[in-house]
Every structure is written in structure tokens, then in C-alpha cells.
Amino acid sequence: MAPQVWLITGTTSGFGAEFVKKLLAKGHKVIATARNTSKIAHFKEAGASILALDLFSEQVTFDKVAADAVAIHGHVDVVVNNAGYSHFGIIEDDSREDWIKQYQTHVFGTFGVARAFLPHFRARKAGTFVFIGSTAAWGGIPTLGAYCGSKSALRGAVETLNLETKPLGIRNLLVEPGFFRTELLNDNNVTYVDTKFEDYKPVTEPLFTTFKKYHQQQPGDPAKGVQRIIDTVLGENDAAGKEFPVSLALGSDAVEQIRKKCEETLKLLDEWEAVSSNTNYD
Question: Does Oxidoreductase show up as a keyword for this record (predicted)?
Fold first, then answer.
């Protein structure tokens, strides 16, 4: 397969950094992005191009980044929307600004990037978007309301984008990882909001402690996870011969969690079908 051009957001660590390393090793061309390019300068020395990208920008800035990215190699084949962070807090404690930041990062900024590259992909009748979601989209987690909500919104938006753009030759892949040993739970990448209400402390205190201790104890290997995503995009190894999916659970824990949620949902539908149905006009 001829080398492809990949643009990746959030490459300072975790999945983003793994994408850059693996793709360069396979001979692909990489455009690595981050808010602070000094943190990814080493990727330029390794052969990648680097661009500044802040997901809190306006659409005009995303459009400029897309134009600059296309100008580097003449086109872009794959855009990986990877950047994200975790916010922990009880919904009653959270502020509007807390939620705006989560949605700006995981939805508004992410789709600002996608929107910027859509004209290029439409003109070429080809292109692949990869969105890094989360199994958090499949159910609530106490103290992670903003995170779960934003990842759920991402899921719905990606599925809609796929319906709109698949006929145009554009592919969309929503990857929903379980727990991987990235820097997502690093204190520098996490916001913990201590509750102001005694009623919630039996929930927040043990959960915050658990998540803080879970950093670098997660079961998933980011290198293996990223390789499976690359295989899916390129149709190689275990992904060879399979129809390109709109979503991909990533990690044994992700498969287990999503399957359990689907089974519970089917059971709920069966149990409440008589109440849920027969609501049409006679």
C-alpha cells in the first residue's frame, strides 16, 4: 500500500503519540498537532510535520490549520481526532463552564476539525475520519457526567456524519476504548472537583481515590490498541477482508461493557414493551 498522509490531534502522549511513532515506522507521512508544539518538537526530528492546533479555536482557525496541513503534502488521507481530557465532579457541583470545556474538547472542537477537512475529502471523494470516543458513552459513571455526556454526544454525531458522508466516499470510524494505560488519568490531564455537599462525599471520595490509584494500572496497552486502529483503517491483519465499521470497541473490557449494556437494554425493552407501545392514533 502506498504511504498515506495522516493528521493526528493530541500527540503529546498516549494514543496520539503512539499513532505518530507507529505510522512513521510504517513509512506513512504524519502531521502531528498539539496546542504547544514545543512538546512535540521531537516528532519533527523523527520525520513528522508539526502544526499548532487548539480545540478551543474558532472555525476560521480550524479551516486555516486544514489548509496548512493539505499544503504540506498536497492532500490528507486520514484525520484522527484524538485529543481529550477527563473531568470528575458531581453534576450539582459542576459549573456550566466545566461542561462547556468538556463539550468543546470532545464535540465542538473535534467537529470543528472535521468540518474543516470535509471540503477536501468531498473534493477527492475519499478520506477517513477516526474519532476517539469512550465506552463512557454507553452509560453513566458517577462523577463523570460531563465526560460521559460529551462522549455520548460524540457517538451520535459521528453516526450522523457517517450517514451524511458515506455516499460521498468518506469513511468515519468511532473508536470506543476501555481503560488503556495512557496519560488520561495523569493529574496534569484530569480535573477533580471536590464536592461542596456532604451527601455526595460517600460517592466522590472512594471514586476519586480509585481513579487516582488506577493511573498506570489500566489493563490496556496503548501500542496494541493503536495498532488495531491502524489495522482497521488500512484493512490489514485481523481487519483484512472485513467491511469498514462505523464503530470499534477497543479492549476486552470495552467489549464486555458494551455487550452488557446492549443485553440490559434489550431486557428493558422486553419488560416494558406493553407500556412503551400502542401510543399511535387509533
Answer: yes
